[in-house]
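Form 7-S
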Amino acid sequence: MRRNTIEFVTKPLTNNNQYKKTWKTIEFLSKILSKYNPDSDGYQMMKSSMRELILMDSNIYRLRIAWILDRVVQNNAINIRYLEMDTKHNVIDENKLLSLDNTWIPTAFGQLLQRGQSSTKDGSEWSSVYFDCDLRLWFISYTALILETNEQNNINDNIHNEKSIRGIISADIDISGTDINQCETNKQQLYNPNYQSVVLTLEGTHKCHSETSQCIFAKGQGWFRGGYKCRCRDGYHSAVANLGPMFNGSVVEQAFEDKRNGKNPSYDYMFYCKRCAAGCDVCEDESPCLSSYNWAFRISLLTITVLCIIFTIVLGLYIYRFRKLKVIKVASPIFLCITLLGCSIMYSETAAIFPVLDVWTCVITKWTRHLGFCVTYSALLLKTWRVSLTYRVKSAHKLKLTDKQLLQWLFPILLVMAIYLSTWTISAPPEAIYLVDWNGLKFKQCDYNWWDHSLVIGEFLFLLWGIKVCYNVRNAESFFNEAKYITYAIYNITLVNISMIFIHILILPNAGPDVKYFFGFVRTQMSTTTTVILIFGPKFYRVIKGQGDSWDNRVRARGVTASFSINGVGLVHEETTDLYQENEELKEEIQKLASQVEIMKICQMEFKNRHLPKPKHGTQSSTNSNIMNISTNPISGNASSTQSPIVKAIYSKFETNDPNSQRISPNAELISEKV
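Output:
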């Protein structure tokens, strides 16, 4: 049956670079002695090897070999042949019982020898630091096992190399003149050349307040306590300003002893660090690092914004209530409501940037700003685009785009914006980063990256297209001049956004949070509120004056009828009409137009026609005047006595059934002028 084994891994407690030669030599000698038989020369080779090793390595103060004579452990001691040699070549050679609790024997090795176990690997380890009372020196020992290899077969005929312990070789190193490091170390520090003369065995024994301060090793202090400094961690400052951010380790050690002995409690209130003010990465005192917020000022601006949102909701209700009035109907009530919805979303940005910003408020800010812009100005520009198409048509066939068709164009635009914002939110949500104001204080602001820049460029190109569309319809006539007001709104949002970019980037880049909030409020009011006033102000002004259901006579006098409106869609198809009455009116108009054309033809034939009998003397001028009157008003009911018989016959032939009717539609007048 195979015996239990324990494996040891070399874990040096001092810097390998300084003592590498020592522990390499000890391990090499342990391997040589693993095949050595001391009975052959009476331990002479051991003694000579020890003498040569001390001469070669100046780090070794004392070297010892404990050769096991009997593996039986009695009272935690084992019978050995003990050889010891120091730098003065003083030799101790004796048989004795070796206590396994000796300071130079590592604890793991003592437990291994006590249980009489073997190892499958070479074992070597550093001991703890100990003090030799006789020599008055501090030592650390590097100990290695001397193992003997025996080959035996197991049940499965496998060969195992079991290493029985034959002895222990140990080298004592004087560390009284070196520095000690009571601070915590890591693997990088262990192999740092700056720590070559440092013993790391006492790490973690400093008296710094680990939660608020950090232990910094100070070289050249010797083998004494307090060879370090306590430095306040980042985000903390000294509780006592006069002591500075670092405390002397020896003073801290003394203060800790006084506290433990009940003499002085200064350790707890003088040598600890306080947390810095909120937002401070490093600090020297309790001075604030974050810019203060004027909440009363911000609440007042937020209140105005909330009132604007309520106002847009009320406007939407009134749009629905007066949707059948001509001033509302020709402007497409559904697009007016969509515009108000976008304005409400844009107003919400002021509420999103009201608190101290974080990731979620930044996400809401981006959504309200860009989605509100897209909803508002897409609705306005699509209406203007429809006017542009209607205005530029050159055929006799009237182009008609309904609200439903425009909504089919609006939906993909909003879908693209929603997909872009969703992808932005999921993949790289905007963070709230710290900016520094002109007082050197920090405040949080949503960061701007290529997601913002790409979207701003797209919106700017969209506005440029809108400006082009507005320029195309600058001369288009429409009821209630809504095209003009939409043009003003597009120009306004473009100028406001450009102005705010210059203010934030060039003029006031280091403005504080309240100033930034104020400019955000101003931008929203100048863009959104101005749009609401331009689009809805003239409409409700006419409604209040009681003219909301009457046509704009100035525009109608120029030949624009109810079949044409700002959105390119008339009201005729939406109103219930009497087909018989409409047919009679059309026939009347055609008859009047035909009479005008015939009269103009006859008059031109009669005027200065030499084949007709000449008029009496003195009536030529009156005849010319009558002809001009006929061309101007050919169907006046009273024929002059001076008119020729042909003209009188024409009047009698084309006289209308209602001679008292003087009404001629604007279309008839327009065509008569062209004829």
